[in-house]
Every structure is written in structure tokens, then in C-alpha cells.
Amino acid sequence: MTETPHPLYATHADTLARALTAITERAYWSAFPESPSPRVYGETAAAEGEAAYRSYLDADFPLDQPGTQGRVATEASPFGFDLGVRYPHGDLDAMIAAATAALPSWRDAGPQARAGVCLEILARLHRHIFELANAVHATSGQAFVMAFQAGGAHALDRALEAIAYAYAEMTRHPGSAEWEKPAGKGDPLRMVKTFHVVPRGVALVIGCNTFPTWNSYPGLFASLVTGNPVVVKPHPGAVLPLAITVRYAREVLAEAGFDPNLVLLAAEEPGEKLATTLALRPEVRIIDFTGSTEYGDWLENNARQASVYTEKAGVNTIVIDSTDDFAGMCRNIGFSLTLYSGQMCTTPQNILIPAAGIDTDQGHKTFDEVTAGIAGVVGKLTGDPARAVELTGAIVNDGVLGRLDEVAGVGEVVLASRTVAHPTYADAVVRTPAIVRLGADDAQTYGREWFGPISFTISTDSTAHSLEILRKTVGAQGALTAAVYATDEKVLDAAEAAALDAGVHLSCNLTGGVFVNQSAAFSDFHASGANAAANAALTDGAYVANRFRVVQSRRHI
Amino acid sequence: MTETPHPLYATHADTLARALTAITERAYWSAFPESPSPRVYGETAAAEGEAAYRSYLDADFPLDQPGTQGRVATEASPFGFDLGVRYPHGDLDAMIAAATAALPSWRDAGPQARAGVCLEILARLHRHIFELANAVHATSGQAFVMAFQAGGAHALDRALEAIAYAYAEMTRHPGSAEWEKPAGKGDPLRMVKTFHVVPRGVALVIGCNTFPTWNSYPGLFASLVTGNPVVVKPHPGAVLPLAITVRYAREVLAEAGFDPNLVLLAAEEPGEKLATTLALRPEVRIIDFTGSTEYGDWLENNARQASVYTEKAGVNTIVIDSTDDFAGMCRNIGFSLTLYSGQMCTTPQNILIPAAGIDTDQGHKTFDEVTAGIAGVVGKLTGDPARAVELTGAIVNDGVLGRLDEVAGVGEVVLASRTVAHPTYADAVVRTPAIVRLGADDAQTYGREWFGPISFTISTDSTAHSLEILRKTVGAQGALTAAVYATDEKVLDAAEAAALDAGVHLSCNLTGGVFVNQSAAFSDFHASGANAAANAALTDGAYVANRFRVVQSRRHI
Question: What mean pLDDT is predicted for residues A327-350?
């Protein structure tokens, strides 16, 4: 630690310092501008990024990895075209061996050098943010602006947040310390102690189809900066954003004199079950996963040699008791349901409303009037196809379509899902949100996740009953988000108590420009790890602390 | 966090602040004096503590817990007498229910109040340190001074260290934060966010027979201060030290207006398998365990609802290459083998020496001369029974005696274990260390732990070969400690590289008053979590960060 800092650490020290402050304050901060405007990114950035993205299509992806034996191309865009990008496909043993061989020198480089290199990778990715955004847009089905923000700027912010937590954790005590213990009348005992940060082993990141970068970056960079080589196993439907990530990460690593095999892409044929094969390798000691509860639970129960971080399914819940801004409430909820056609892990599903209706600034509103208010906003937001698709994007897979069919039969359909013709992509699969009315007794329906543009308005006996249902369903199935609308502080307090018991983050009275399905890096924690929807939060101390160990040596001075 | 601090927080704020500094510096610091001298603790403390200890013998232990249905008395001292202390024994459902009911108000009290109460418990225990020391002495078989230090002062230091790490983790960001995001030309988005520390559930601490307080306190206090009620399941052979701990913890909790059922004692009949029953309860979400590899692995594999922290067996190793202080080296190693007759989890077992001998300040020493040097020190330290027992203490159980019998047949006995008559306790079971010579090929013998006063001098081809054996055996079985003796920096570097690869803490050239089996709170990490001997270190960020979650709520300002 007394040596000259690594040049890339020096380059990024100010950014890292600001990020370290941000995680202690958890107030507003962002390092990567979220507006794709030419005023921010320059007049040519958008076109250059799109061209770079297009150059990948129907071609071999430029990645020189050990063990490559062939190519795989697996991506069909929700917007209705095949990407045709051909990724290296190969020998897992060679990849694991290369990753393992890369570990010692990366470990010995120390926290500063690793942080500098990781921040340089973020800077490089940021320079290619339009390229990334196009890739996220095409593979996830997100509208472009959302892909730019969630898949580009916000993903980079979350990566930086994870690096900051990990750096803080690695450096919470010095690299070496002198110890001098008084020894009565004799000379004191004096020792120097060296504390080495030692990584756990090879880390595996298992990406998802909907947020290939945002959900993968925290784990990828938390593992990498703490010294672990990372194997990235993308979803076969969303390889390109992570392939681009791996490409620039390897480029930066090589330029900085490190082994590029610290970051590897493990693309697969559909049905190859590469995640399962990798997850059970003894060399793999850390796994980050986003996806189904079933597979997340399988990983937790079977990849016993690894620390496993999972984000799974849940039943996100809104409790409506009363509001002093009925129009704002309906606008806010309706927007949340429409954004990315409900395909966010944070989209509300269960909307609990007293059967007797609620008090509002517009007087008493019946249950049906509240439902109609929300449905009306969704209808308005999705009425014009050209504007609709910029909010909804496209449907990511057939599973969502199947649930949309199924849900029409489980209750009274308050708002039917519609097919929208995409003005640009003729074969895009676009659907508007469905809202179905249920009773409190229909827990066998609303008590599990219906991933996609599906939500339920559920009539309850009272707000107390609604909170009981929240405690019960979130307690059993977990949730990433909860919200409450109430004008009475006592009701807000009761909702907060229920949220604490269920271990779910709560948003209160959102009627403006903040939505329950959005979480801000450096301020909001995403997931809590305190319920069944996730076993960890992005991003906090617990998320990073187990990715390395401290091994000390000591000797007398 | 804006309210008046809890009075107990105010009382102990300076101590906590000093401890928080200590964990960032990892230099020398101690809060609890380790000398039992009357000059430190007063003229009457020793006699009063012993009297308090004696008042427990052959009597009902004063503990008023829910669910008590009878009493159990299970403790036979290694010094040859039954303690006859009768502990409450009862209904687990009632205990778990009481612990669960105590959680919400303890959670809602917040980090400051909980830290204040926990530090008051430590202060109360410190006031009763002689009582504790007598209890540890009688149940573990440690000599009195060691029981006072390891079981009293050092255990309290480790508890404080765990509290400091947990407090730092809980307060690394504020309890609430204002977030203001610029919104172009419009008004900024403004929210206030509250971050609640939410405990995981009921915590279980499974104590061991040899270090009932030292090994239990970090987990106990890390869990308690982060909001989790704690059920303490002591080893049936060492109940009293933890019963005293639970007694005073409950006393302080009740005085401070909290539910005393936040800390409960679960004493058991031998063979009752209470740890297993408790470990599988769904309410139990954190488990701390010290003991056998077999049972620790069982916990990790079966108590899947809980975060499990284990310290298990390992093969502690010394590599001897050369020394510039042959006499000091032999004294240091010989003392380490003798202390508590080798019944520390940190006692060296495998001493790797080149068959061709080593260079020393006394000229070349053959393998046999090195072995004889160490054996000679052990013989001298244990020659006089009265002095011997103040180092060795007594043998904790029949398993150790069985291994002593067995080991005599596995190689050439260089130093035979002897029976020593204890000058005070006629029925005490006292044995001196055995040293057995093996070859590098005898890995089936030295490759596993022989817990007790058993060590092996193992002849190797070279120091490089010794390091290869260290890598292999520690890599496979784990170790809590390793040491090297070498005069050449290159050899020390090679040993450090091997220690990093094996994930074991290394002590270099100990020839004075620091011993490889000792670790200093606030400076040395105990275990690393980086090899099979333990899945966590005492005490670091990773050890505390998963004992709670952060659940947030947010609303517009």
C-alpha cells in the first residue's frame, strides 16, 4: 500500500472517492448521465453507437477466448427479428482453467489497482453506452430510452456502487499494521501484521433476459474488484449486452497488463444447461443469479461450494387506503403497470383496496372507481401505438403471453390486454397491461407471481385486512417492492410496520415523478434479502463482504 | 436517530468509539485487562469471584426462563469433580416463542440502544470476571490464569470487537437520508428515505467444551446487537460459563426495560441432540458453532434456513527451514504445544522439517536435533507437576485420551505423553504432550486433526516440499494457524505465498513472547474463512453483515 498507486487508480480516484461518500450518505448521486440527449453525449454518439451495434449482427462476435470450439447464435429479438450474432462456444474446462490461472496476479495486484481497472472498464463501457443500449433494447424488448437508462447509465451506476462497497470493505483496515503490546517492565512485544485480501475463487454471473446488464453488473464487478475471475453466462435471449461488456472488460484488462481471462463469456445453445454445469464446478465459489424462484432455490440448495446471491420472483403489493391526490395516484400506478409492459421484477402485481372504497381529494371513491381510475390511465398511456410502444416495449418471451391468456379466466377482467402494432417493427410482440379483479379469498391466484403485464385489484374488508394480506403473501412468497397510499400518519405507520415484518421496501404516496418500480443507485436498496424474493440486496455490505477473505501474516519487528 | 441517545449508549459511547477506531487500525488495543492481579482488579475480587462461583455448585442455577419444566446437571470437571449445578430444562416451543416475541421492540430500539445495552452486559460480565474465570477453569480444564485471560478478558475483548463491527455495519449509512434529484427545468424530485435495520430472526449459539465463552461471545453479541434474540446451547460439559453469561445478560436487559427473553439458555441432557432440534427450527435464522468438522458440515448442509458460521477442525502446520535463534524457536514451539495440553484449536500439529536438517545460529542441526530441541522444552516445562499443571491444565474428555493411546502406535514416539498428578485435584486427568516422528509419506496420519496434546515432526525432502505439503494438507483439511521459521526473505515470501493459496494465517519466526496459538482481539483475525477449518473469521465485516438486513421506506417531502 506504500507503493506508487496504479495509474488507473490515480485516474479514477476522485470518482471512487465520490462514490464512497455517496454510499455513506445514500442521498442523490449519479456518475453516468441518464439522458441520451445529444447535448449530453454529443451529436454523433447515438449514430455511432447504433452503427457499432449493427456491425455485430449476423457476424462472428469479436472475442478471443481460450477453449473456443465453435459458435452459437441464439438471440431472437422481442421486436421480431433474429440478431444472428455468433458467439464463441467451447470447452468449459479450458475456460475454468484460464480463469483459475488468472487469479494469483490479480489477487496480488491489490484493491487499489483492481478498483482502478474496474473503473476504467466502466469508463470504457460508458464510452460505448449507445452500443450497449441498442443491444439491451434489441434483446430485452425494452423501449430504447429505458434500455439506455436502465441498461446503460443506471447499470453503470449500480456497478460503481458495488465497486465502492467492495473497495470500502477491502480497505476498512490498512494493508498492514504495527502492533505493540506493553509487557510489564520488559520491552513491549512488537509485530508487524500484513492483511491480504484473498478472493474466493471463480465467480459465475448468470444473466437474465429482461435486464441483462442492470441485474448482472453489481455481482460481476463486486466479484471482479475483490479479486475473483468472473465467468459470465448470459441468458441465450440476451447475450449481446454481456458480450459487449466482456469484450471491453477484456480489452481494458489486457491494456492494463492483466490477464484478459479474468472475464470470460460462456454463451450456450438453448437447453445446454450451462449454468447448472458451471454452478456445480468446485472452482466456482461465488454465483450471482437473477431469474425464477425455482432455479434460484435450486442454486441455493445445490451449489453448496459457492456463496449464492439470488434475485427471484415475488408478489409486489400496493395497499390503497386513501389519498389526497386521486388523479396523481392513478397516474403513478398506471404508469408503473405500463412501463416495459409490467416485465420489471419491481412492477406491482397485487393492488389491495377496501371493498367499501376509499376517501380522496375528489370525495369518496368506490372500489370500482379506483380500479377504473388506474385502468383509465393505462388505457390512455397505451391508446396511441407510436407512444405506447415507447413505454411498453415488447414482450420478452412466450411465457408472458401464456400467462396473459390464462389470467383472463381467473377473475373479472377490468382491463383486457390488447395487441399493439409496432410502428417500426412489423413482427414485434407488443401487449398492453391486463387488470383483473379478485376477492381477498382468491389467494391461490394472487398469492404467486404472474410475471408480465398482469395485475390484480383485490377487494379487502379494510386497510387492516389489506396489511394482513401483505404480511401473509409477502411473508410467504417475498416481494421486491411495496407501496401504500394513505392520508393518515397512523395508517402509514401501520404499513411501515407491516413492511418491516415482511422485510420489503415501502414507497409511500407516490403521485409524481418517482415510481414504485424504480430504484435509484447509491440511495435506494434494491431488494432487501429479508424475504423470499431475494437472498441479498443490491448493493450493501452483506452483498460484498463474503466475496473475499482476509489472510494475515505477522512477524516481530 | 435524532432522538436523545439511550442512556446506556451515552454511558459506553467512548468505549464504543475507541473500539471502532481499533477495528480500523488493527493495532494493539484491549478494553479488558488480562492480568488477574489484585493491583488491577482489587484485593477482594478474586475471593469474591471464587465464592460466587462456589455458590452455584450443587444448587439450582438462578435463571427464571419461560418453559422451564425441570432441571439438568451434566458437568464433570476435567479436574475430577462434578459441579452439580442444576440448570433449567424445558419446553423449546415456549423458549422459541418467547424469543420471537421479544424481537420487535428490540429491533425498533435501534442500533444505538442495542449497542449501549450490549456494552452494559459486557461491563456487568467484567465485574464478575473472576466468577466467569472459575467457571471456565472448572469446566474446560484450563489452568486458572489461562481461564481468566482467554475465558474472561480476551472473550470480552472479542465480544466488544464483534459489537464494534456490527455497529459499524449497521451505521455505515444514516438512519434516514434526503434525496433530491434534479428534474430539468422543473422542480427537483425530493424524497426522504428511512433505512431500518431488521434482524434475521432467532439466533442460535452452540458452545464448545474447551472455550465456552471465547468461542461463543463473538456470535452471541454480533447477533444480539443486530437485533436478533439469542438462544445459547452450551456444551453439556461447559454450561456454567454460559449460564452465568445468560444470567447477567438477562439482568441487564430487564433493568434497561427490554425483554430478558432476548437471551435464553438451552441446557440439555447428554444425548438429547438439542442443537440439532434447534438448528432445524424455521424460526432459527443464524447459527454460530464451534466444534467438530462432522457436525459443522452437517449444520451447513442441513440448517438451510439459517446463516451458519462454523469453526471446525484443521491441521495447523509449522514449516521449519532455518533460524537465527534456535533456542528461542524451540522454546516458543515447545510452549505452544504444552499450553492447555494442546487442546486449543490453534495448537500446531504438523511440524515439517527437512530430513537433512536446518541451519541455525548454533550451526547445522539435524532433523533429530531439532525434534529433540522442541521435545526438550516440553519436557522441561512439564517436569515439575506443580508448574506443569499451571500450563497444561487438564484433559477435557476421553476422546483426547483415546487419541493419545492411538498415536503411540502410528510412528516413532519422540516424546511420550506422561500422566501428571495434580497437586490440588487428586482426580484431575493431566497428560503431557506426545511428539511422534513421521515421514512425508504418512499423510494418512498427519493429514487429519489429532485434537489434543499430539504433534508430529515430519521429515521432508526440502522446505519446498514442506510448503507443498502445507498447501496440500491445509488446502484439503483446513487450518487455523500456520507458522514458518526461516532466515531467508525468499523462503518467508514463499511461505507467505503458500499460506495465501491455502487461506491460512501465517506467523513468521516467533521466538519470543507471542505464540502461534494466540490471536489478539482487535488486531489478529481468528480463522480466515478461506479454508475448510472455518467458514468465517472472527471478527470482520463478513462475520456481521449477514446478521441483519436493511429495509427502507421512502416518501416525498
Answer: 98
